[in-house]
Recover the amino acids of this structure.
């Protein structure tokens, strides 16, 4: 099966600081990859490049068969992105925000789609709430609704569980499993190793700008998870 | 083209809806405009003849300063909650974002003008509701908004954007302001149209230049 995401020799520099150093990555349709790693490893930078928000310094990045940055317009139609911020206007209601994004994505039945995704994230009765008045967890759920609004082929998530309570985390896990089961590719950056191993199909360790280890999540036991992660990160540091 | 215009008006409508909900910007712009108007009126103690000669300058200083507030807010709004990333992730022509935000800024400037003009007429004892002057206000505000939205896009990710925008904006927009003041003075002094036409042409040329540069460059200036 051909890869939905292909990344080769990816380098990203900010001035003199090199964040990604020849990163290699691939993910297939239906694959759910959790990218774990220490702070400053380059997880957010990697996701922002995949989301077309940063131009890579060097290397090849291809999503859904389209090269970046030359075909970023085609890529944007096919990706959904959840970042640390909800990307929602505080003065608009939840439904107004989602309808605005429906218009930008050219969706034909915005009202029906907004109702559908609000139901999906468990906020069907809160659609008229002004975003500014919503607690962080609810804004995060809305951010997820915004990201899946146009049914993207690839879903990119940067620490999506941050600020969510247990119920909301379970809801998000359920949404992500359903998205993945529908044949979409999911890439999620997280610090939560145990959750990563529980919901993803593959766990990649990103350290100092490269993927240092990659393994199917099914092979990782709860006891073996931390040693696997520490070995991966330490080996890179020694190397 | 239909989708392009739809995106453009969607962005304009969103900006105006956000402003309608918060009413932060219009009220700030109006208060600043009124403060400047009062400063000119009461501190300079101009006689009637002097007032008529400085009216155009005072009018455009008021528009320029209150307009800067609006331009700062136009893109700062997108920085809150990371909304700028949300816009940039959308599969839309980024020039449509430029024109959408430009149209919203223009509407705000014209709203301020509509409220301030009667007060200027009252304080400066000159009727400002002249078709020629209204045309100059439209063209001047258009050029000002075009270059302003482009530069606000450049400054939006800077921590010092509130200071940076006026520093970048005023030197670049000076030709528009000079042409607008001269054309306004001409209409207020009831000069023949042929005497004012040069400044109107100048305004049109700068509007066209700034709109074209914004259309072509916005994609590059707005990227991280």
């Amino acid at each position: 099966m051909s890869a939905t995401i292909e990344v080769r020799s990816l380098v990203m520099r900010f001035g003199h600081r090199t964040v990604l150093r020849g990163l290699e990555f691939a993910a297939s349709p239906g694959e759910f990859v959790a990218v774990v790693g220490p702070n400053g490893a380059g997880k957010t930078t990697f996701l922002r490049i995949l989301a077309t928000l940063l131009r890579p310094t060097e290397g090849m990045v291809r999503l859904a068969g389209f090269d970046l940055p030359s075909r970023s317009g085609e890529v944007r139609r096919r990706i959904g992105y959840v970042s640390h911020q909800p990307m929602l206007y505080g003065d608009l209601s939840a439904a107004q925000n989602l309808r605005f994004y429906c218009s930008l994505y050219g969706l034909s039945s915005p009202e029906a789609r907004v109702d559908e995704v609000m139901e999906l994230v468990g906020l069907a009765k809160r659609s008229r709430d002004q975003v500014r008045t919503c607690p962080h967890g609810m804004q995060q759920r809305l951010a997820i609704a915004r990201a899946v609004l146009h049914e993207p082929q690839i879903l990119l998530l940067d620490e999506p569980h941050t600020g969510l309570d247990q119920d909301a985390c379970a809801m998000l896990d359920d949404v992500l499993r359903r998205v993945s089961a529908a044949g979409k590719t999911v890439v999620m950056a997280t610090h939560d190793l145990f959750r990563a191993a529980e919901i993803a199909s593959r766990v990649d360790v990103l350290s100092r700008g490269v993927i240092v280890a990659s393994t199917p999540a099914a092979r990782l036991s709860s006891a073996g998870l931390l040693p696997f992660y520490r070995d991966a990160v330490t080996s890179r540091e020694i190397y | 083209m239909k989708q392009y215009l739809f995106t453009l008006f969607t962005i304009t409508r969103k900006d105006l809806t956000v402003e309608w909900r918060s009413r932060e910007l219009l009220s700030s712009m109006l208060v600043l405009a009124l403060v400047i108007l009062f400063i000119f009126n009461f501190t300079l103690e101009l006689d009637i003849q002097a007032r008529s000669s400085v009216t155009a300058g005072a009018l455009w200083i008021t528009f320029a300063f209150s307009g800067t507030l609006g331009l700062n807010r136009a893109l700062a709004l997108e920085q809150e909650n990371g909304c700028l990333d949300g816009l940039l992730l959308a599969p839309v022509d980024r020039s449509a974002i430029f024109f959408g935000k430009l149209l919203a800024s223009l509407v705000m400037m014209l709203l301020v003008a509509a409220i301030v003009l009667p007060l200027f007429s009252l304080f400066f004892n000159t009727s400002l509701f002249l078709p020629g002057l209204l045309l100059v206000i439209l063209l001047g505000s258009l050029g000002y908004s075009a270059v302003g939205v482009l530069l606000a896009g450049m400054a939006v990710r800077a921590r010092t954007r509130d200071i940076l925008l006026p520093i970048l904006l005023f030197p670049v927009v000076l030709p528009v302001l000079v042409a607008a003041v001269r054309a306004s003075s001409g209409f207020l002094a009831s000069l023949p149209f042929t005497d004012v036409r040069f400044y109107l042409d100048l305004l049109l040329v700068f509007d066209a230049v700034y709109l074209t540069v914004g259309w072509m460059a916005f994609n590059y200036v707005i990227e991280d």
User: Anything to note?
Assistant: The domain at 5-238 of chain A is CATH 3.40.50.300 (Rossmann fold). The helical segments of chain A are 43-50, 72-78, 94-104, 110-120, 136-148, 166-181, 193-199, 222-238.
